[in-house]
Amino acid sequence: MSGVLGVRQLLLWGSACLWLPVLAQGALVISRDHAAVQETRGAARSLQKRSANDGTVEVYSVKVDCTVTSRFAHTVMTSKALNKANSSQEIFFEMDLPKTAFITNFTMEIDGQEYVGEVKEKEKAKKQYEKAVSSGQTAGLVEASGRKMEKFSVSVNIAAKKNVTFILTYEELLQRKLGQYEILTRVKPKQPVQEFQIVADIYEPQGIAFVEASGTFLTNELLPLVEKTVADTKAHISFSPTLEQQRECAGCENTIIDGDFIIKYDVKREASLGEVQIVNGYFVHFFAPPDLRRVPKNVVFVIDRSGSMSGKKIAQTREALTAILKELHKQDHFALILFDNNIITWKKSLTKAIKENVAEAIAYVKQLKDNGATNMNDAILKAVEMLEKDREDKKLPERSVDMIILLTDGMPNNGVSNLLTIQENVRSAIGGKMSLFCLGFGNDVDYAFLDVMSKQNKGLARRIFEASDAAVQLQGFYEEVSSPLLLEVDLRYPDNTADFLTKSHYSQLFNGSEIVVAGQLSSNDLDNFLVEVFALGPDEDFQVQGKASVVNWDVIYPQQEYIFGNFTERLWAYLTIQQLLENSDIGTLQEKDITTAKALDMSLRYNFVTPLTSMVVTKPETEDGTDGTLIADKLTEEQRQKAERRTGITDITGSSAHAASSLIYSDVDGDPHFMIELPNRADALCFNINDTPGTIFNLVRDPKSGFVVNGQIIGKKKVVPDGNINTYFGRFGITHQKLGVKLEVSTQDISVFHNGKQVKLLWSDIAFLKETNMELNLTKNCSLTVTLRHSVKFMVIRHTKVWKRRHDKQDYLGFYTLDSHHLSTSVHGLLGQFYHGVTFELTDLHLGEVQGKLDATMYVKGQTLRVTRHWQRDFSRDVKNGENIHCWFVNNNGTGLVDGSTSDYIVSDLFKTV
Asked: What dihedral do alpha carbons 172, 177, 183, 184 form, nearest 10°?
């Protein structure tokens, strides 16, 4: 390809980013430890330097401005850019916002013309979107981005020498958890920005108890740039690094800013009545009285131990339960129920949480093992029965709270398996007498089912992401609900003064949380606005009343009253919509319809993008005379989960005893060990391949795209005394015919061939190459990550294994598939055949002949195999130390699991494409 390659670079700011074209040829950035510089690499580096200086699009202003007024956060993100080129350029705007927030406005200002988003009913917006798509126009997206955030993106074509300004606004009511509020801004710039600023102003008439500002990326040099000013009722936090201060090093094009900027704070709490604020005809009541004694709890832990909990999940559950049991108070009572197709109770009734009983329970939990199917219905009903019986027998304190905490990772498949029937059985059995909290572990569980069942029984559901911190997630949830302070909290207001109240009755108030009630005033008689709160405490009834005092905002915040406007009304609207949405999936069909209609009406009235509405932006006409339509939606947790299942992008790795997976991470490393990791589950399959040094195996072959990976085996330099030759992969040949990409990777160097050009890299280099169809990143830890556009993403790692006693070392390579879902269903090869699914079933699990090893019978691909529980090391997430992954090992070069025999995959050349 002659001329200049159009390369899209990604520039992020605050929670936002820009994609913009720059002029670059190869766009390769290299730093090295050695002095020798090859001519081609030096030319590429100088070219990148010129490209950065002569960029055709300049982002000259980025601001994130957050104003918090009595917990209600209003955030505006603004970015301005100039197209300096003599032709039009397409710019992509992206940002992350909290999933609890509602987008309220998106505006593009282009050459003095404003393009403002309009909130519409989702169905009407969908029709407009489908019309845009059918005519070939692009459409913006909102998609899940990690556990707490969602990503908003849009592209627009900017004419030569013209400016564009992007303005995104969103609002949310900050929730108090574990004694603090949190403002989270995701900051992931790919390179320094001329004007970069994050500003937060917090106004709390109750008084501010503390404010903390931190960042996952803040170094000792950046910390002094975080400015924090705290007065009695207001705080100001800002972070404004200069262009040079953002750089990773002097003269570097990379930025050091990459991570989360987090502000945490709490307010002063003195009156037991709480704080009531009245502004512009609306009131809000914040209730979280200080210095309350906790109410004893009676908790039954119902733990899924079915086959799908094998591997990491069962180990993390053991770890979390051990920590949770240690945190029980001696006034608490607890029980343990384990379930698969059978229901196993630790003891016949609840046990007081004294030291000896807790120690005995921990010893029991440490023996927890996976086995069998999933009889969820009977397990929950058993928990209800235990609590009811102990209540009847007066074994539990009269003033105490009964709760069930269910942890499950899959679908009911034994006993009662109909989800609606289970919900009805549980609702009927509980009868409003206790709370049910449901924790859905991983992505196989039906979260919507658990969510509804929790809401029906005075509890809540939470997703536990299958990741290395799953035990911490479980402990964190328990900490939120472990200390109830008040029960059956009833907040009352004058009938003739307050209308359209949000929820005013709560089953529990937990330590570190807060109850918020808002409403509309129907009378100006504020002198008689009496507030009353009734609840059950640990020893006696809690009762407090008082008259609401009207906060004079002009006095507390002189010259700043213009900031606040109608925040109490919008807070009321936000809270009302959230609660309507929570109740829209419970009750009768008629009740659901009425609740949904109310939520939709308020979403449209207050311009909130909710799961019932969409924001539509019509973009300016392009040079061919067509315009485009942007659709911004709000995702529910169920939609987020479905998207993760579809894309395979989650926080998890892992298999069930009976499983089919459509998205798989396949890799080969070590001596050589092949491993097939199944996302959304908790296990893996593995096998070894042994052959003579010099043999070349086909690992991946996709005939439709022409993507091929071949690997050549090398032998260990020194032969061990027993005469066996340890073999490894020492060279990979990787081609993608349609994209014109070819890579040869050896333990010494990396050769990249693209569009008739060649670049050679050493493993000691640090390099970044970004072109239209390929992104290549070589890091100092000897890992090479390659992304081929709309095709595949993979990683090659160079290891050096050292035997100190033998004064010997061996270099070898590992190949890891990170994303393969774009490849065709025809993909094959030793790894490729597993990319789109493998179905298997395990039975007859038992201790094998090798001490401590578990054996099983596996039914897979029409074969019956004997498999053994092993573990392999996965270096894709931790290149230096690796991570132990448990897997079912298939002997004899994977015979029965691998199609055909291993000799079928031998090829004659490293770049053989047939």
From this structure: -100
Measured CA distances, 477 to 324, 442, 473, 483 (Å):
10, 15, 6, 12
pLDDT at 517: 96
CB 294 within 8 A of CB 327: no
Q: Give the Cα separation of 172 and 181 in Å (integer).
A: 12
Using CA atoms, how far apart are residues 553 and 541, in angstroms rounded to an integer? 35
Given a cut of 50, whether residue 680 has pLDDT beyond it is no
**Measured in whole angstroms, how far is the alpha carbon of residue 92 from the centre of its chain?**
22
Gap between the Cα atoms of 342 and 215, Å rounded: 47
Distance between CA atoms of 665 and 644, rounded to whole angstroms? Answer: 15
619 is written with which tokens?
């973009």
Return the top range by mean pLDDT from 252-256, 687-691, 818-822: 687-691
Report the distance separating Cα 665 and Cα 678, nearest Å.
6
Q: What's the predicted TM-score (pTM) here?
A: 0.66
Flag whether pLDDT at 513 surpasses 60: yes
Q: Is 872 helix (H, G, I), strand (E, B) or coil?
A: strand
114 phi/psi in degrees, rounded to 5: -100, 140
Cβ-based neighbours of 431, under 8 Å, separated by 6 or more? none
Provide the residue count of the chain: 914
What's the pLDDT band for 721 if we cut at 50, 70, 90? low
The predicted pLDDT at position 88 comes to 82
Among 598, 579, 582, smallest CA distance to 590 is for 598
Confidence of residue 47 (pLDDT cuts 50, 70, 90): very low
Copy the structure tokens of residue 872. 């392999």
- 838-849 pLDDT, tens per residue? 877 777 777 777
Contact indicator for 736, 706 with CB cutoff of 8 Å: yes
- Closest of 236, 610, 581, 302 to residue 438, by C-alpha: 302
Higher pLDDT, 555 or 182: 182
Q: Considering only CA atoms, which of 892, 787, 890, 897 is closest in space to residue 834?
A: 897
